[in-house]
Amino acid sequence: MKWFSRDTYPIGKQSEVVYPGNVDMKGVSLLVTLFTVFFQLVRWNREHKKEPRAVVFYNYRLETALPAILFKMLFRVPLVIEYEDGIYAVTETNRHYKKISVAVEKFANRLLDGAVLVTSVLKKRVSTDNYTVVRGGTVHPARLKPVQEVDLGTNRPLRVVYSGRLDYDRGIEILLDALPHIETTRPLELHITGYGPVEDKLKQFIAEFRNDRISINFHGFLDDNDYGQLMETADLFVNTQREKIAFSECSFPSKVVEYIKYGKLVLTSGVSDINTINQQMFVTYDNDDPRSLAAGLNEILAHPQQYSMYPVRAMEWLVSDCAHEVVAGKLDRVLSKAIDGKPGTSVYSSESAQAE
To answer: If DSSP codes are grouped into helix, strand and coil, which group holds residue 120?
Structure first.
């Protein structure tokens, strides 16, 4: 391995993605990454020193944050944070790493020239007023399937799908605890796919659960073909990511965005910005309460016709907020203000649309 080698690929004419060199060795990997990332920043700065530029770093992971902060202090290049899934709120993060990350965040906050946030709730953690919110990544409208008014039917089982990690934060246990409170004569098929630390608890629950009207099918981890088939045949998707934990304020449920793309009804918690953007697009429940979730599902079962336009409105929101042109415009404004103090000419081009 060459210490200063790098893997790159271009995006359009003006951008490239760089993967600095690294070694797979415990205790050494972080140090090597810190050094090589900083070295690549210095080299990039030398190559483009006559052009407008800014450094955007991901989250407050040490391997991205520390080189970016040092580079800002030495070369005075504008610094922008792309903030999501905050280290401080991820329960599985090593506690020592978490403490260092929080300290780095406090120090870096006063150096920020801009921020790209995954939820508006994160605004309270950044000091700059030059920020934008990009919740669902980007979508290409021309590649989305048309969504029409949905028919949930009344004379067949309702197919409900939960897809995602099986852990505390994603709240699968809330869904399980809600099942005894569902009141309907209509059969309900619950399909669960995913994996995670509460998988054994889920399997035990299924083995012990008894309800003539509700069947539970656990599929584990599915391949792409089977997964797509399951999603296409769903009537209702459920997102149970918890709203009453710290992780809720620094994430947006990507599963909700995925569900919208399938054009089906979504029942979701009020996690992150859900209640802010919800304009009769989703059925929601409150406070991570299983009874509230059950009440929402009972209402859908009792009056399915009143939710027929919800998926259409959800798709309209997705296109209006997450289309690649829209997101590019958001980034343009933040980067332009970070670089020269005011929103400037768009850097977005039709070429980048084709690349996307």
So the answer is: helix
The CA-CA-CA angle for residues 147, 152, 154, to 5°, reads 160
Q: Which of 60, 56, 11, 61 is nearest to 33 (CA)?
A: 61
Q: Cβ distance 171 to 181 under 8 Å? A: no
Backbone angles phi, psi at 45, to 5 degrees: -65, -40
92: CB partners within 8 A, 6+ apart: none
Q: How many residues does this entry show for the chain?
A: 356
Q: pLDDT tens across 52-67, in order?
A: 889 999 889 888 899 9
Buried b (16+ CB within 10 A) or exposed e, 168-182: bbbbbbbbbbbbeeb
Sequence-distant (≥ 6) Cβ neighbours of residue 103 within 8 angstroms: none
Average pLDDT (142-154) is 86
CA distances to 64, 127, 250 from 124, in Å: 22, 8, 10
Contact 71, 42 (CB under 8 A): yes
Looking at the DSSP assignment, which residues form a beta bridge with residue 261? none
| Nearest alpha-carbon partner for 82 in 41, 112, 39 | 112
Q: Where are the alpha helices (DSSP H) in the chain?
A: 29-47, 62-75, 95-109, 172-178, 199-208, 224-232, 254-261, 274-277, 290-302, 310-322, 324-340, 350-355
- Here the contacts of 16-23 (C-beta below 8 Å, separation 24 or greater) are 18/44
Q: Per the structure block, which two tokens stand in for 159?
A: 């197919």
**Cα 338 from Cα 55, distance rounded (Å):** 10
pLDDT (tens digit per residue) in 280-301: 999 999 999 999 999 999 999 9
The pTM for the full model equals 0.85
| Cα–Cα distance, 328 to 51 (Å, whole number) | 19
For each of the domains in the chain, give its residue range(s) and CATH number, in order of start.
6-138+323-355 (3.40.50.2000), 141-318 (3.40.50.2000)
